[in-house]
Amino acid sequence: MSSPNSSIESVLVENRVFPPSDAVVKAARISGMAGYEALCAEADKDFEGFWARLARENLQWTKPFTRTLDESNAPFFQWFADGELNASANCLDRHIGTPTENKTAIIFEADDGAVTRITYKELLARVSQFANALKAHGVEKGDRVLIYMPMTIEGVIAMQACARIGATHSVVFGGFSAKAVHERVIDAGAVAIVTANYQMRGGKELPLKAIIDEALATGGCDTLRNVFVYERTPTACNMVEGRDKTFAQALAGQSTDCPPVAVGAEHPLFILYTSGSTGKPKGVQHSTGGYLLWAKLTMDWTFDLRPDDIFWCTADIGWITGHTYVTYGPLAAGATQIIFEGIPTFPNAGRFWQMIERHKCSIFYTAPTAIRSLIKAAEGDAAVHPARSDLSSLRILGSVGEPINPEAWMWYYKHVGGERCPIVDTFWQTETGGHVITPLPGATPLVPGSCTLPLPGITAAIVDETGNDVANGAGGILVIKRPWPSMIRTIWNDPERFKKSYFPEELKGYYLAGDGAVRSADRGYFRITGRIDDVLNVSGHRMGTMEIESALVSKTDLVAEAAVVGRPDDLTGEAICAFVVLKRSRPTGEEAKQIANELRNWVAKEIGPIAKPKDIRFGDNLPKTRSGKIMRRLLRSIAKGEAITQDTSTLENPAILDQLSQTN
Ligand code: 6R9
User: From 497's CA, which of 93, 139, 416, 419 has a CA 20 to 30 Å away?
Assistant: First the structure.
């Protein structure tokens, strides 16, 4: 863990404050700071009673729980453990027999603009039918199913169908490589894969099934029996006899009625792989009860959801944001939501704004990186400026994935929200399951660039390296002191790594988020200053530096050694910069460019295109201490183009710094 203070150099003083209007406060579910404080006080006074009340009010239990929190095997906390429920029943069946049953659950807009709508009742029928297809192919409660799907209604159906029969899904983002899929099939011990022949993005037809074929051809996937292929486009794909079935084949003759399987509250609803500070991605395991409670509750709290809202979270189901705020939260809350297959810049960079107008979106939730790229596009071309679209349906805006810089915040507030819509800057992680630090739209005065205050019951704090609280205004390590219902339960197959990564002994048993943060001196508001471990955040996507390094050095014919660091980037937040020592002499000029390209493509093949380094620099060696440790702090300075001011006296080979400063 590097010193959090290094990332707090740019402490900005932000004086602008945007309190919610009286009308917004009055209409809100959690109304004003008094409403927020009342919930915090309730959690303070009776922590378990607070969560028990909310779990009873927000979820339908087939067997009520009698015990709220079990801390006896900390940090493997258990919530509502003797209760039973089904997540899919809590998202779908609960609405049947209520006016919501005929409400539109999903408005799907395809890449080419075609729109499909599906009601709750229809969605339940389709989820049930697919669940029956899974069962007919031997998928059982407790089995793992890997999902590699485009953003479609069928992606949500696949996830919900797994939940319905108690199978644990593991969604892999459609941009990940065959190698990444292969590793995840093996680590999760998946018995089935749900995929599509192709996906449509920006007018292009991109293969998905071919990547699955490549992954499975690698061998070693002994648990895998079936591959289900949704035919997204009419183009044929390779089908393996006995193993592969199209959706049409699998669904033929299956009933649209499938009773949900009750599972214990701690039953793993899903595993989602995310990057950590070692080369191997971590399978973050989430529960059913606590996770679902959070998904539902934060729809109500953070988004102040109302029955007539049209909710749109632009995240892909391959990320945690797509799990909680596409597949589970909106459905559990009975919302109408928009799902978009394509990309924000096709057919032009006004697509998001045009879609908000077209579907009368009222709550819009996206990532700073998307906002920044759309600002750039709008500034260059008035035709794609949000002012060209009628955005009056909007009432709340959200941001997630990385810190939002105050300039982007102000633009979002002004040009998208018409200075009328609160922005909820939601801080959370794959591991937290849902929002943990965020403004509440009808309560919290907003400060650009700050995620403001923890949700009620979330004991977020900033501490030093020994776990002691630091004063407001001083930077430190972000922790959460007490467990909460939707927290990560373990790392699949690696409980030791779970303990070490998230509950290091020196931090008194607190949950370590892995981010640095600072609280403002006046309001005590949190501002996230970035990761303090070897995790990068590029366009809101998490990537481990070690993961990229391992990919580079796995090109054994060429690469001897590699070190990867992040550097700030105006558009993507952070950019990946790789320093590489080749097994041959150091290339320069055209040759260096060519090899750099070859290595970029190699990384895309090993991990996925999102992991491609932006800069690759070659050296005869890397800057190392006499004991052989790579001095990453120096590399970070070089990547930023800064003059080296650090002490280089322990450096074995100072001449190397000049070499590495040269770009290709
Ligand atoms: C939900 C999600 C988690 C990391 C997290 C932090 C960064 C997310 C943020 C934010 C500042 C916000 N992050 N939201 N930083 N402000 N509102 O993104 O999960 O992919 O696991 O990433 O993203 O660094 O630790 P995940």
Answer: 139
